[in-house]
Structures
1.
Amino acid sequence: MEPRELAVLAAVERRRRLKPKIKDELVTLAHGAGGKATHALVEALFLAELGNPLLDPLTDAAVFRQNGASLAFTTDSYVVKPLFFPGGDIGELAVNGTVNDLAMAGARPLLLSAGFIVEEGFPIADLRKVAASMGRAAREADVVIAAGDTKVVERGKGDGVYVNTSGVGILERDVELSPESIRPGDRVLVSGSLGDHGMAIMIARGELELEVELESDTAPLHDLAAAILDSAPATHCLRDLTRGGLATALNELAMAAGASIVLDEAAIPLRPEVVGACEILGIDPLYVANEGKLTAVVPPEQAGAALEALRSHPLGSAAALVGEVTDDPDALVLLDTAFGGRRVVDMLVGDPLPRIC
């Protein structure tokens, strides 16, 4: 049996033992936040009904072989509010988000599809802005939007416009990126400051009287991921830090790997603006979404090379080594605080920041 098949079986067996259950009778916003409620919905409902060897690992993209080539495939939908925000808009976000899911599988993005659900009465000028933004983002990421679809729903039924993008990429390196590859002693890196996107969206909504200049970090990460894999070819896992932020992503990795992760709070890069806004809102920045940041889990002997590769790229200039994998089988994420204590960093519960991507 191939290593990838063994890893899939191991992940499936772990999920069977956990047996997630849906306790809610109705869908809530928490089911879309990327945290515990999302995992229960995905694993106890969708995976139970749709599960197969390609879907079961629940990674950012499915990897498969076709005519001798290794390909990656992914899809994502975007419902961000507001549609236009400092640093980007829903069109750019839809391209970059799907490009990044492919990049986390080690793939070079090739083709995207674009599906639009447009509300009756939505301004044509704004729809053109969204399409133009998607076109620019696709050209910058060197991908082609090769297929598309448009649906229009009644006034009041669509909140402006929703966008879905799917993508296909090709794996040009012989890599096996998966949480099951993570081992005790591995180092955990992040590519830059956390929480920029989520806080930029919250401030752009105008519901908070905060005078903070903060832009979304939305960006395509495939070149950054390639730089890591070229410099640290034994990299075990890549993950982009979207819904649920760093905390939720690392909890997912810890559970899949059957090991714990210890973070150094002092090493985690955060902008003062993000810290201040999070303090006012009572939100831990470790749970705030990013759209242009990734985490890499690499063997200790290649951590230095990976960090150097990140910092040499414009999108990784503020990269940092923030943690280490331990052999604790409880699969916890722990934070060594700046005050000298240690606390558990659990997976996101609830949805403190709805409609951010």
Note: The radius of gyration is 19 Å.
2.
Amino acid sequence: MTVLLAPMEGLLDFVLRDILTRVGGIDRCVSEFIRITDQLLPERVFIRIVPELLNGSRTPAGVPVRAQLLGSDASCMADNAARLAEMGSAGIDINFGCPAKIVNRHGGGAALLQDPEAVGRIVAAVRRAVPAGVPVSAKMRLGFNDDALAEDCAQAIDSAGACELVVHARTKADGYRPPAYWERIADIRQVVRLPVVANGEIWTLADAQRCREVSGCNMLMIGRGAVADPGLGWAIQGGASAALTWSQLLPHIDDFWLLVCSRLDAKSRAGRLKQWLNFLRRRFPEAEVAYQQLKTVNDPVLVGDWLARQSRIAALTKSQDLHWLL
């Protein structure tokens, strides 16, 4: 199995990519989308969203990060893709899946799935603009209001020269409501030549196994499932025995907090930790306790003190366990 980490605006940024790839089980990441309108963006904008560009387009753990572009102007998308290629991006991914109203209202993201020809023009322009050795991939939903054009859009992406296609198995109208229609990914696989990656509603190892069976894909992309269970990638690749425990996760939460404090402004820090804990409590009872204790705390100093206490408690518990073992 190959496991990719999904792009998720406002959630899976470079900080969480760093931590989740330290945990392991992730073969490649895709960045949050970089919005392209009518101009060639300066390098500092790309670096702000994808700081891994300064590290060979890899996270500190060495996992490649492919920058994702979102826009509807094929020529401008191509120009920005060329600049990213010059900066050493591990590849260019194109967003045809964002369901946000403000993005769709301006003709980007999932709105483009109403026009397979436009989808093909954008992919072809980007493919022509970057060197042959730079991968160009795309991520799409099944459609906008329905999935009637799913196969047409996938074929347009394939014919335009993309090397890989991620399919989020829901339409824009479906949003993030379950279920994900993995069987439609199997349909798409029958009409394209390029490798297809299955995405959507993969929260557990059992979900991943079922998705693989239904979609026929040996490549999966996980997003919210990896945020809720950072060991999910390992579990998918190595079986249930690879599941992460809370005591194993706690040092990574400490590292996350250190990164948040060093890279984000003070007003955002407590909220970022609580955002992650809110996901983690789906998998870990201890995260529910932590979330309840911190949900009204916004002072970064108090949050830091709380985390320090948890680390001391964990260390004391571990030493007591070792004492009894001895």
Note: Residues 198 and 220 are 5 Å apart (CA to CA).
3.
Amino acid sequence: MDVGILSYGIYIPFYRLKNKNIAAVWGKRASDIENSLGVKEKSVANFDEDSVTLAYEASVRALQNGQISASEINAILVGSESHPYAVNPTSTILGEFLGVGRHYLAADLEFACKAATTAMIAVSGLISANKIKTGLIVGSDCAQAKPHDVLEYTAASAAASIILSRFSSKCLAEIIAFSSVSSDTPDFWRRDGVRFPSHGGRFTGEPAYFYHVELSSINLMKKTKFKPENFKYCVFHMPNGKFPRAVAKRLGFTDKQLAPSLIVDHIGNPYSASSLLGLTAVLDIAQKDDLILLTSYGSGAGSDAFVIRVNQKNDRNRRENFANQVNRKKYINYVDYLKFNGKI
């Protein structure tokens, strides 16, 4: 595709909520929840944070890490399912805060948890067609969950920003190929005006997540003639701690290939930011010529898969990388969590 990752940045909110605190409120056993979901705690946005502020923090870090001027950005595409406004784009607010100027393409995308990887495909296409030089794609969510719903234990907050450009020696990695699959499989949904999403419970597994993730991954490997053993790392969307481990095993990947990407073990599922955060955690440690398989998933339903080759070890200023941010935290109780989310 001749498209590369020039830089990236992430932002994980400071606060964490342990699942045992949620379970205690609803008379559940924490061990049962953790065994079922494979998640022990999640990141929580403060009362004055939303998907825009998270996206801004991640994007500033991406610009700083790559020593890139905001005026170089020709497109901003933001993927989220918690845009603060129903009518008023997150992308233009972000562009204004960053000081991008006026001559850029802006758009908000929605496709549940794969909106940001769809943005990656769209921006890559514009760069590959020589329509723009540099684009910023963002996955940012303050994930919603109804109190006493199983999603309450996993729905988290975070953002990841990636700056794409035409591939050059300056790029950290190259996007080699991608594959997408889509279907009308309503495993997770939220009607307009309804505050919290609904879902199909255990039926969100086989006909939804596993079917689409496996199909897009297998199709891409056939297209590129790569096999699981050719990849140093794999990254899959992480709605919980069990699904990515199960699908990796079913596709023929090892625990060693998957482990560095499992951000869900530390912060839960930040929806549109999930798979991108997993990718950035891998890029933090990857070496030149390492191959990465990245496969997202979005309810509704669809999956985007990418083959990415690392061009150089990331030795740039990464004080705000995943390992540092995830260890910077403060635990809150359930009442504070409800206050932060405006539920009381």
Note: The first strand starts at residue 3 and ends at 11.
